[in-house]
Each structure stands twice: as structure tokens, then as C-alpha cells.
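S.,

Sequence below, as promised.
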Amino acid sequence: MREVISTKDAPQAIGPYSQAIKANGFVFVSGQVAIDPANQQVVAGDVAAQTDRVLRNLSEILEAAGSGLGKVVRSTVFLKNMNDFAAMNAVYGKYFSSTPPARSTVEVARLPKDVLVEIDVMALA
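The prediction came back faster than expected:
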């Protein structure tokens, strides 16, 4: 069984994809960027501010799926600039302070809407 997950408490998809898919006991959340769901605009600020918004967006989508950040088993962080790793990691660590998920972090040439960070996750349903 495959269920599309959607919430107005996170940015709406800006292409042909779902915010998340719930299937076989897992929730697969599409990459989220620092868009404020209230106005669909990228938040101002540095990578720390953008990481905070991204993680709040991920949390809202997971909650809509009946899951949560505490059930995340895997994440991928995409950074525009690896020099931002420490600042991103400090914010990320506040959201995943105990038993953090497995993670990969990579530097990419460009992200949607020219944001500084994008994160996707897989979680237990």
C-alpha cells in the first residue's frame, strides 16, 4: 500500500512530486528547502536559519504521516557550500540530539531556488 502525504503546514510541492510517501512501514520525505509555508517564500538568513526552517518543514510532514523526527532512520543533507557544514550541523544536532539517524552530507553545485541547504529523510511510520 502506498499513501501520498500532504500538509499545508509545510511548503507545497513545486513540481511533479509528493511531500512524502508512506509505504510498507516507512515514510519517504522529499527534499525540503527553506521555504516558509505561510508565504511560500525562501526564508532570509544564513545556513543556520535555513536549516532550522528545513527541519521544521520536515517535522510537519512527518507528523502529517503519523511519524516524527524521532523516527527518522536516514537523512541526506545537500549543502551549497561545505564550509557551512559546522553551522548546519549545530542546528541539525538540536533536532537530533539523541540517537541521530544515519546521514550523508554532500556539497552540490546548485539547489532549488538557490537555497543554501536541502534535506530529505526516511523514517519509520
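The chain has a mean pLDDT of 97.

Coffee later?
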